[in-house]
Amino acid sequence: MIQHFQFKSMFKNSSIPGWTFSFYYNQQKYTGDYLKDGSIHWEAPLPSQEEEGQLKKQIHELMLFHVYD
Description:
The chain is an alpha+beta fold. The chain has one domain (about 5-65). About 25% of the residues lie in helices and about 35% in strands. Strands 1-2-3-4 form a four-stranded antiparallel β-sheet, with no helix packed on it. The longest helix is centred in the last third of the chain and has 18 residues, at about 50-65. The chain is globular and about 35 Å long.
């Protein structure tokens, strides 16, 4: 489960879509960018391939709830 999820706009003009995010998962901090088309670009460390699909789904749900709702 994702813990301590945080996000902020990538741009000073917050009406331009694009966000940076960070969270903890299994005691590891992950960071990345969430772009307007829903794609995610990870910073180091990268999640394992097994975890990535599940994490992307959770990030999409959190972004929908916090940004688009």
